[in-house]
Design a protein that fits this description.
The complex is a heterodimer. Chain A is α+β, with helices and mostly antiparallel strands. Helices cover 41% and strands 19% of the residues of chain A. The relative contact order of chain A is 0.10. Chain B folds into six domains: 2-39 and 172-199, 2-Layer Sandwich (Phenylalanyl-tRNA Synthetase, Chain B, domain 1), CATH 3.30.56.10; 44-166, OB fold (Dihydrolipoamide Acetyltransferase, E2P) (Beta Barrel); 217-413, Phenylalanyl-trna Synthetase, Chain B, domain 3 (Phenylalanyl-tRNA Synthetase, Chain B, domain 3); 421-488, Phenylalanyl-tRNA Synthetase, Chain B, domain 1 (2-Layer Sandwich); 505-702, Bira Bifunctional Protein, Domain 2 (BirA Bifunctional Protein, domain 2, 2-Layer Sandwich), CATH 3.30.930.10; 718-804, Ferrodoxin-fold anticodon-binding domain (Alpha-Beta Plaits). Classes of the chains: A alpha+beta, B alpha+beta. Chains A and B meet through helix 5, strand 1, strand 2, strand 4 and strand 5 of A and helix 7, helix 10, helix 12, helix 13 and strand 27 of B.
Chain lengths: 339, 806
Amino acid sequence: MKERLEAIKKTALEKIEQADAMDSLNDIRVSVLGKKGELTQVLKGMKNVAKEERPVIGQMVNETRAIIENALEQEMTILKKKLREEKMKKEVIDVTLPGKTHEKGHRHPNQIALEDLERVFIGMGYEVVEGPEIEYDKYNFELLNIPENHPAKDEQDTFYINKEILLRTQTSPVQARIMETGQMPIRMIAPGRVFRSDEVDATHSPSFHQVEGLVVDKGITFADLKGTLEQFAKEFFGPETKVKFRPHHFPFTEPSAEVDVTCFKCGGKGCRMCGGSGWIEILGCGMVHPHVLEMCGIDPEVYSGFAFGIGLERVALLKYEIDDMRLLYENDKRFLSQF
Amino acid sequence: MDTPISWIKAYVPDLDCSVQEYADKMTLSGSNMESVTVLDKNLEKIVVGKILKIEKHPDADKLIICQVDIGTETIQIVTGAPNVSEGDMVPVVLDGGRVAGGHDGGKNPENGIKIKKGKLRGVVSNGMMCSIEELGSTRDMYPEAPEYGIYIFQKDVKPGDDAVEVLGLHDAVVEFEITSNRVDCFSMVGMAREAAATFRKDFYPPVVTKTGNDEDVNDYIKVTVEDEDLCPRYTARVVKNIKLAPSPEWMQRRLAAVGIRPINNLVDITNYVMEEYGQPMHAYDLDTIANNEIIVRRAKKGDKFVTLDGEERTMDDSVLMICDGEKEIGIAGIMGGENSMVTDDIQTLLFEAATFDGTNIRLSSKKVGLRTDASGKFEKGLDPENAMAAMDRACQLIEELGAGEVVGGAVDVYPNPKEQVRLPLEVDKMNALLGTNVSKEEILEYFDRLDLEYDEETNEMIIPSFRQDLGCMADLAEEVARFFGYDNIPVTLPRGESTAGKKPFKIRVEDVCRDVAEQNGFCGGMTYSFESPKVFDKLLLSEDAKERQAIEISNPLGEDFSIMRTISLNGMLTSLATNLAHRNTNVRLYEFGNIYIPKSLPLTELPEERMQMTLGLYGDCDFFTLKGVLEDMMSALGLGGKSEYAPTTEHPFLHPGRQANVTLDGEKAAYIGQIHPEVMDNYNMKGEVYVAVIDMPVLVPKATFDRKYEGVAKFPAMKRDLSMVMKKEIFVGQIEKIFKEKGGKLMESFELFDVYEGNQIEKGYKSVAYSLTFRAKDRTLEEAEVNKIVEKILDELKNLGIELRA
């Protein structure tokens, strides 16, 4: 009996070692351990064994079974791993093949610039407001200290519908409308379309966009205006950006300034984009003229404020290095899909 | 405003900065530098040479060999110039030097032209004699220069002198942008005052002394101003025994530097004073003036007048004229008349220095179609006090230059002298506005440099008349800021009550629409708000279509931009056509823009501005591609499944069988369709274009970003597939309506999976197949319940003549 078990074990282990496929391992399992397998046969032959030897033989059979099962298990693990590796070898791909995408749309560069700008000011507690594009002369000019017969009102600059109604030439009328509501404090930006009687060329368009900003509260100073616009410039153009305030004149602010930032292409060293000066003019601003406050029903002895106006196209053209303004209105896919 | 630094230094002698520093600091104090022209750019190693001897070139007829004394030595120069003689003093550029340009007067190269010694036809030449063009200038500026040939010095110079210095070219002209409020800065004296204040140097304006003989000007001329409103001040003086001659070199050089061609002493003096004081003057030949009388009055409508440029011009009754006892002799502030102009045989001169209403001059200049240097200055609204100062300055120059004999006294019609402006000195308020802490002493120092006088008794600043821009505390605060330095003002952020930054709901909705469009391949575009009235015909709109009620611009850029759009499609179609013409494939565009709907025409109140989202596409797409985008958008706005599509034919620009109105709660929110083939032709497009226009004012109030979690289904669903046969004309929308109505709470969803026409289906019929899903939230559904619902649906479908497919 013993010898027979040894023989079964030996042959089984040899076969297992030689097996190179899962199927042959299964065959071995069936032929040795299965219902009609050799070991089962041995167990069936137990009735011929002396009663006292039965436990011993039984144990031997179990041990043999365990050894064979173990060997089978091990071999299977090895074989599985081998097969998996072979399969993966066949599955090698060319990872440098192009990725799969579907065609997506793009925001208009002007809109991207606007949203960037809005994000900065919303973060500083500004509310975005809108006003009409067809506007009364009163809001576009009169309340902004631009009286009758002022050169800015000339027909060569302004599109008129009639004597009282025109296409707004700036987003500043929104200032007057908001101030008139009398709700303090005011922190707003007003983006929108404006119109001027300019023929279309690479740097002019009869229709473009501005973003107006207005803060009115007690104790607002020119220093606050500087701080606000400096923070805006750093967030919008990058933390290294420097800001320069130059005195200027606008009818509805006093004192007034134009603001330059260090050229975002050369960083201020001077290049073709900034005309060698290292600076790029981006906006006009100033302290709201006391007369404007007064006309809008705000007491200039109690409140003060600042305002600024940014030409959106100008900023977008500079930021994205677009050399012709007409591209913004042509809507050629080859242009639009670059943003 | 062009300012030669040398001219500014005439009033601010201690100004000793570099050109760059001058431009930079002036910019920071409010005069923005626009350009710098360096007059001695690329002029190197150029000296005065004296031609000692001229010989013929042995091998060239047109060349001569000159021996030239350059102070330190005598050098040989070969030249082809025809105009030099022995003894002439000429500018000579030495070996290794540089000149600005060629003698042909073409555009000067950026780095000039380097001059090296060499041989000309075998003869050594050690330098070059220069024409005025080679020195970077022109005969306009140096009238004594020959038309062709070498510049020959006509004044006392000696060999070896710096020729550039002698010509006055060691100078730079800085061009400043002057803001419209600073009328005083359109003059050299004004700019010099700014420069002196900016650099804290002393300012020496011209000292004008008394002029005139002991005669009385009133014996020569009488002045009446009839229209005082348009002529606040008129001054006149007379000069007799005129001696015309070239003006002195210093005056010629200064005029040349600002681009004014020197002519003769009289013309040059008027131009010089206009530049120096910013006050235009006019000179009349007194002998041409009838009755020795000047009358200032408005023209009569239709008056014809010949200006001194020989053109006949037609006036209207708002144009102010200068007249004599019989006739009109000049358009006030714009241009004099041919009939009174100064000629070479002038004996007696009438000088006019007046101020006119700026607005009137601006409008008149437009009406007459003539804009001159003088009108450009007058239209800014000049200071009347300056008129007499300029007049006296001009007469002083007449005497100094010996150009004539000034008659004593002046005519001065100035009925309402300008009142002195005084402003309280509010140091604390100014500091509060600026966020600074500048001391009173410092402020007074700035103001003193600007010729603002302090009245200690009343604590007021006395504003000089030329500072017409100073009228309130904020104006004075700007002066403090300019000279304290915008740079030095601290940087702070507004304090006080904090506010929440936000966007209005409308813009949030627009942003979501943009996102959905872009996810679906649409690019954001932008088109004009105004367009041509021809658009309506292009879009096949009927004669009485409401869209034709458009607002017209009274002064458009042309017919193509003359009406405010009432429909947003034209911009989109034009853009798609552009893309098609550029052979771009699969183009999808969207645009946000207003249309302008007048409440009545002509406009008496502001129109309604309705934001439209317009989508347009061509290429790999059909109607349902675009409809899918709209459905995506609706679900992103919390309106999923709420929009209904009703077939229509109301939009003439759309294919009559492929258009629909989209309604939300019964309200029209959009339309969608394929562009009509005829409209395609009108825009030169081929193929199929689909568009959708969303009326945002309807959509926005219905949109919502509120979402509630509805749980994930816990119980199994039960599915039923219905395959139906029906007449072709029936829309699946009608079937879906029945599903929605009869499906009840248990119907979770339905999905169209097949539409078929053709073999096996009777002609004029189609087969439509839906998969319906039923589910209960709280239990597993019984077969019988679902059967009951399906039966109800089928009954309803039968009413439409729809049968289950056999």
